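From the thread on structure requests for the teaching lab: each student submitted one protein with a one-line request. Submission from student K.M.:

"Model Peptide chain release factor 3 from Schwartzia succinivorans DSM 10502, tokens only."
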Amino acid sequence: MSEELTREIKKRRTFAIISHPDAGKTTLTEKLLLYGGAIHLAGSIKSRKTQRHAVSDWMEIEKQRGISVTSSVLQFDYDGCRINILDTPGHQDFSEDTYRTLMAVDSAVMVLDAAKGVETQTKKLFKVCSERHIPIFTFVNKLDRFGKAPIDLMDELENVLGIRSYPMNWPVGSDGRYRGVYDRQTKKVELFEADETHGQKARESAVYELDSDELKEKLDEETYQALLDDITLLDEAGEDFDLEKVAHGDLTPMFFGSAMTNFGVQNFLEEYLRLAPPPAPRLSSEGVIEPEDEKFSAFVFKIQANMNPAHRDRLAFIRIVSGKFERNMSVWHAQENKAIKLAQPQQFLAQDRQIIDTAYPGDIVGLFDPGVFGIGDTLCDAGKKFKFADFPVFPPEKFARVQAKDTMKRKQFVKGIEQLTQEGAIQLFQQAGAGTESYIVGTVGTLQFDVLQYRLKSEYNVDIELTMQPYEVARWMQYEDGHEVTPTSLRGADRGMFVYDRHGYPVLLVSNEWALGWITDNNPDLQLYPVPPDR
Ligand code: G4P
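Reply posted by the TA:
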């Protein structure tokens, strides 16, 4: 095993920040970059931020495509570590993209609003992380404002998410009016000081020994005593710190701070880097692939088309799993079953993208994609052909018939829709017996239809007609004996819509589980799958 590879792997931390919209993910990301020296004045990401209304956001992203991409993968160095932050869109209709992004990380930072605690989107994202045993670090944000009692937040994590927490620091102050935090490791107290820059620059902090007179002077007696009591309680009755448990996602180190005022951010970053795991192995058809394996391997977790509409380019984002990546290297593309050359690889440094020559496990590289890559594809050394396992596919729940308004534009329509399908945000079906002038498109959320409509217009100049279909469940079908399911062989096919996926596999769309029950009861030899079965 080469020393260089081992050294580079150890240095890397690849993670995503997950949160319910508005908890402060964007602000925290920006502050991490600020401390990492990757940006000098906070506000640069924030001002381009996209949230509020998701479709208009998307259009905004469209306008600033380069920026949205660079901010979806950010790399910077801090204290000898190389940090890769993967952004996850906040809107729930984008969650499929988010889930996929989580496949590419080694840990996650969960941001909670101190006043709101665990919210709906937090729960969903947490579930994906915990199912995969991704280590989770919790940052309780907005400590500069009134918030829930820290002990209640710990209970909430345990009762709502089912994870125990270990507070690394502890808020000082009573009734949700916080004055600062106590660091359980250094046993020092850091108090908020007036901040003249409104959080734009890294903050000077005032730190006091726990038993110092200065601290006692700064805090009223009741607050000081309450702090001492809390510390005793935590030390005596709290969970022990256990890095093993953190690594399995069974215990979450919990930090309190305020991203906006930079309070507790640097300390969080340093502790996080100390405790978070370096790049993890991944499971493949040939068993576990360790990052230290000299043979290169990676998988595609995100595809984004037409980053620059003028050039019609597409980027496939790969996460490197093992070995060293080198520009122009030749690798085996497992799904296409052929060798390809990785030219023009790009990496994303704060707000710039640049061509890179080398990269290591944990890194994210953007590859120009002439239309050959699909989500979940494996790239590996030609001498060791395998596929990474376990890439999630999400069952579509919304369906619409889509066709070009102007039949003369059919060619662009087909091209556009196929390319957007490859990005993975929509799934494409063809109704059995129908002509090719229309498609059935399946998505996880309705927002994707707006995005589809918008993008076909802006990138391919095609207006589409979209008719929502009354189905909410899709099932891939096959008979137990391997016989192909056809519209005539299936009893009750007319109770839903019989379609084929883009690989020609039969799928039935029905309105609900009840309708599905009828199909199952009346076709005893039929096997149904919520996602495409492996072929
Ligand atoms: P998100 O990416 O998770 O959606 O959240 P974002 O960072 O955009 O933060 C949501 C709102 O919360 C923003 O306010 C942001 O300024 C505020 N915020 C973030 N961290 C803190 C904090 O530590 N303390 C306090 N008090 N507020 C915080 P906004 O009014 O929606 O936007 P803006 O006017 O600040 O741009």
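TA comment: Residues 46-59, 61-71 have pLDDT under 50 and may be disordered. Residues 19, 21-27, 46, 49, 51, 90, 141-142, 144-145, 258-261 surround guanosine-5',3'-tetraphosphate (CB under 6 Å).
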